[in-house]
Amino acid sequence: MLLFVATASALMAQSKKTEETSFWVAGVCGMCEKTIENALDVKGVMVADYNLDTHQIKVIYKPSKISIEEMHRLLNVAGYDTEKSIATEEQYNQVHRCCRYRELKNH
Amino acid sequence: MRTIIIMLSFALMGFGAWTQSVTGVVRDADTGTPLEYVAVFWKDSQAGTITQSDGRFAIGRIPNHGILVFQLIPYHPMEVMISEQSEYLVELKINEMEKLEIEEHAGSQHFHGKDPHLFQTMTEKELCKAACCNLSESFETNASVDASFTDGISGTRQIKMLGLDGKYAQLMSDNIPDLRGLASVYGLGWEPGPWIKEINISKGAGSIIPGYESIAGQINVSHKADEMKERFFLNGYVGFQGRYEWNAVSKHSIGERFKWDWSTHLAITPSKYDMNNDNFLDNPIGNELNGRLHASYEGKHGYRGDYTFTQLRYKTETGKYSTLGNPLKLHNTNERYGIFLKNGWILDREKEQSIGTQVSYTAYKMGNTQLGLPHNPSVYQGEQRNLRAVAMHALEWTHDIKWTNGVSWNWDEYREKFYQWGEFNRTENVVGAFSEFSWNEEDKFQMILGMRYDYHNYFGSLFTPRIHFRYSINENIHVKVMAGKGRRVVNPILDNPGILASNRIVQVTQYNAAYPNGLPMESATNLGFVLSGNTKLFYRDLNWSFDVFQTMFDQQVVMDWDTFGYLKMYTLDSKNGAKSISQTAQFESQFSPLKRLEVRLAYRYVNAYLDYASGRRALPFVSRNKFFTNVSYSTKMFGREKNRILFDATAKWSDGQRMPIHEDYLYVVGDYSPAYWIVNAQISLAKEEKWDMYFGCENLFNFQQKRVVIYHTPNPLSFPEDTSPTVLDGNFAYAPAFGRMFYLGYRLRLGGNKD
Asked: Which pTM was predicted?
């Protein structure tokens, strides 16, 4: 336990280089959540945690390594719309059938 | 088809002129509350924004785009034609379909900080971290439940909880007590791992509703077939030492309300292995065929029924097969079937009032023969028939107060025959009533007070109270305190399957004619304290738990293995201050130091001792200190198919265990066994929710117990006629007899998603 506290406080000092943000991303199901989190599983992102209920993704990242714009782009590439930018038709078409958030299963 | 509905759009301000931006408010059509995070974007463009907490948005006009799309899950998306007007009110309607798609997200193994009864849940994902061929092997990655071998011959695994044998834990299958009585040790080997959806573990006495039989804890297994996402599941497993297993689970539905599923398991172990060269097989050869048929019906007026039929045939053969000396073969046959019927009616949806019934019938037949001993061929035969019926009523007075009352009837018929004792039978008849009251102030505390009164045809009135209390210091730290009583009737032979792997003389040294087999009922009090919480470490969750438990027997049948050649059974002399106590303290934590890397660390201290007739000694085969670590790493998803490679490793260190007292000059282990490490590792390649392949190794560093069986034959020169062993005793197993073992398997999931 003490060891954890010690490492935790050591990390606190380091964590100044990181920033936390959250933003809106479209997503409808558990598979979307996995794809979205996986899209931000890149260098510079420490934590990417998507919440299906609020459609918010919480990101802890190092601004020196990745920009917020880049994250939005990566999510678009994975086929997902974000609050800042919308995926192209081509990018959107690669999402899985069950994840087609734009149609919202109205068929 | 996109639905285009324009609910309302009007100009709030009469500008009338072309302005640079479009502004407005988005709200819920039904409740009128402003909606935050609604995506607002020009159709066929990439320009967009989101609404603020007051539902307001502002978006700049772009040339050649005249339609704004409003999107928020779970609402229907809406497209609005934008004219010259600049202020809009948009109302979104809930898409009812969308609400159904809620998936629970939790780790592969998690603590229940808030639930006063439950301690931990192991999910299917957790079970995929190791071979987990059956329930007794499923605890390889769990720090609270240990699996060890009952003896060095039969290859039977038994579990231990809180320093006590698995017989003191109550096993349940879909919340119905199962694998009781004669099946309480062997039964764990019959529940195929790939059928399991999750395992719920309660430490301490647990809930009173399933009965009084839990002393160390409750283990509930729920089956995946009932709520499987895929239509068909197939698993194949090959152990390189000659073990082949197949599992298939299939789900079907007839109409909206009737669903049925079946599960089958086939295991064949044809190859004889003796990796520690003691002339005895390390694992039995044999075959197992196991099936489960389940159906459920959901009626219109709040009725739900679950009907299950299970069947098992399991034959094993083990013993001494070497050509040197005389063969000694042990055959074991098991046949069992069971019918489980559950019915539930919701009487009043407003008040959450419901009635439930459970009826189950199981019949189990076990036979054990030893070839090569003078008492050929039958050593033991046992039959158990059980009928159980429960009716209960649950009422949720307010959201915080819940009250469950019920009555139960349990009938057990045992017919046993042991070569040293002859026939012995008993029929138990227990009627009881129970009541469980729960008061829950969600964020602060919860108290569950449970009690039951049973009348037992042999043991008379039995009152069993249990109390569980949870207090949340804050959102992240929870304290649980619990106390409860538990009791069980002893099955002198099958509680100790090691007897069947020995020629020890089994004696009841204190026979009380009033009780079946001359043995009283065991009863114990369990006290527990659990502190658990979660915090952040390395930006990610760190879950931890610290628990202390004490189990004190006020009545116990002491199984005394400490006279070589004998197993003596007698009553714990608690009237004269004799004690049987097991104390455990455990610390466990799980955290994620790097992305996709999960580490679990646990340490447990056990102090379990008993006042035997010949003095106070530690319980045999209990490690005082135990250290456990599990590390799992997953790569990033790669390829279009979204594959992952997962790595898992578990290392366990067991301190020395007290060995039963023996006076055998050939047997090299002293009073205490040596401490040892066991390391298991597995690599798997998985495509999310479709298929996975796994390759693993058990006992990577090849730790083996060399001499597990004490076996002597008379000198063939002096007694050429007598071929039976003078001493046969497999009850000194403290570690696996087999060495490093590799395995390979696959899991296939078909028809995963609904469309």
From this structure: 0.82
